[in-house]
């Protein structure tokens, strides 16, 4: 009998998408988790999911003149049906890693990549984050995209508090983001954060019992920022330099918004200006 493997995989994808739509609204049940695991296991057994090999990474990551995985600094492998990190964990000098829209369930092996500046894992199958030991090593990490995953526990956010230079975090479209105190808990657990999901963090969210005008309220439209921007370049044309340019733009946009959207920053700027003028006589 002829078996349409392409159609089989489309059926598996449909199961995954149906579960994703449901788990964005609620924490997945044990039955739903088992169903998702079974679908992914079937896909893996059918050869539809991959684990990046050394040869695959060297070919895909434009490593001309760089024959070693440890020399790779930039990986962009979205929509590649990746199930496990494979040899990505050997890319010790990785700085930008974009693995969105795959089938990853865990990524703790990236602890071998302490120079990461941006890590994009949105739209995967992640339900649990690594512990503090993992995040403590990520001293260079500035941007972390985790939206559209199955993360549902506030305890996972607590482990991120030791990621001391993390500025940007996205967790929208997760069961966790539906919890009533999600944003308050996240903002006050990760002190280095300047932007969460679609908005720059306002002073009202940080300073307890503060009363500011409507202009400075939490998630005011003027505090909106795009933390996962689409790029104009074709995938094959993107480089570490262009990705780092995107990182700098995101951070610059946040700082620009804070200059006018944070009462504390506005007051500090006014005081510095006053003291400078006074010093000049």
Describe what this molecule looks like in 3D.
Pfam families: IQ, LRR_9. This is Leucine-rich repeat and IQ domain-containing protein 3. Strands 1-2-3-4-5-6-7 form a seven-stranded mixed β-sheet, sandwiched between helices. It is α/β, with parallel strands linked by helices and 281 residues long. It has two domains: 1-48, no CATH class; 50-273, Leucine-rich repeat, LRR (right-handed beta-alpha superhelix). It is globular, with a radius of gyration of 21 Å. The protein contains nine helices and seven strands. A hairpin with a 2-residue loop joins β6 and β7.
Topology (SSEs and partners):
Layout: H1 5-23, H2 30-45, H3 54-60, E1 74-76, E2 96-98, E3 118-120, H4 132-136, E4 143-145, H5 154-158, E5 168-170, H6 182-189, E6 195-196, E7 199-200, H7 203-206, H8 240-261, H9 263-279
Parallel strand pairs: 1-2, 2-3, 3-4, 4-5, 5-6
Antiparallel strand pairs: 6-7
Protein name: Leucine-rich repeat and IQ domain-containing protein 3
Pfam families: IQ, LRR_9
InterPro entries: IQ_motif_EF-hand-BS (IPR000048), Leu-rich_rpt (IPR001611), LRR-IQ_domain_protein (IPR052859), LRR_dom_sf (IPR032675)
What key attributes describe this structure?
alpha/beta, Leucine-rich repeat, LRR (right-handed beta-alpha superhelix), 9 helices, 7 strands, about 35% helix, disordered N terminus, LRR_dom_sf, Leu-rich_rpt
The overall strand count is 7
Based on CA inertia axes, which overall geometry fits? globular
Spans of at least 5 consecutive residues with low confidence: 1-5, 266-272
Give the helix level as a range of percent: 25-40%
């Amino acid at each position: 009998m002829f078996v349409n493997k392409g159609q089989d995989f489309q059926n598996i994808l449909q199961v995954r998408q149906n579960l994703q739509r449901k788990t964005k609204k609620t924490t997945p049940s044990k039955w739903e988790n088992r169903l998702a695991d079974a679908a992914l296991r079937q896909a893996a057994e059918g050869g539809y999911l991959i684990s990046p090999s050394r040869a695959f990474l060297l070919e895909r990551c434009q490593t001309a003149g760089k024959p070693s995985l440890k020399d790779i600094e930039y990986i962009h492998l979205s929509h590649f049906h990746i199930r496990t990190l494979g040899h990505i964990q050997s890319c010790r000098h990785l700085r930008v890693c974009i693995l969105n829209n795959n089938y990853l369930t865990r990524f703790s092996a990236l602890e071998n990549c302490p120079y990461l500046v941006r890590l994009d894992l949105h739209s995967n199958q992640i339900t649990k984050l690594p512990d503090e030991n993992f995040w403590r090593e990520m001293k260079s990490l500035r941007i972390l995209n985790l939206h559209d995953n199955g993360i549902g526990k506030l305890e996972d956010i607590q482990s991120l508090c030791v990621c001391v230079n993390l500025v940007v975090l996205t967790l929208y479209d997760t069961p966790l983001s539906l919890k009533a105190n999600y944003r308050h808990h996240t903002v006050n657990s990760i002190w280095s954060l300047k932007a969460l999901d679609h908005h720059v963090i306002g002073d009202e969210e940080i300073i307890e019992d503060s009363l500011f005008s409507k202009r400075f309220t939490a998630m005011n439209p003027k505090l909106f920022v795009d933390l996962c921007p689409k790029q104009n370049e074709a995938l094959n044309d993107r480089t570490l330099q262009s990705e780092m340019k995107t990182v700098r733009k995101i951070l610059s946009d946040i700082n620009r918004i804070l200059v006018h959207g944070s009462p504390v920053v506005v007051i500090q700027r006014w005081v510095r200006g006053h003291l400078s003028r006074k010093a000049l006589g």
